[in-house]
What we know:
Structural class: mainly alpha
Largest sheet: none
Shape: elongated
Helix content: over 70%
Number of strands: 0
Number of helices: 2
Amino acid sequence: MTNDAADHLALKVLDIEKQRTALKYKYYDRLKSVVGPMTATRFLMLENQIERVVDLQIASELPFFNGPEK
């Protein structure tokens, strides 16, 4: 993998995380106004746990990045 490819990959991952966070903010505010902050926070915590499990499953299927090719 080249430096440019690694940089592109890292920026893409960061962009996806930014989009996920923005979506969580959006729906947390909506949910909070309907069910209250306590229940909305529980849903957010559950969403984060599910997201981590899915991320871990995806990561376990991907090859590990070992650095630049020689």
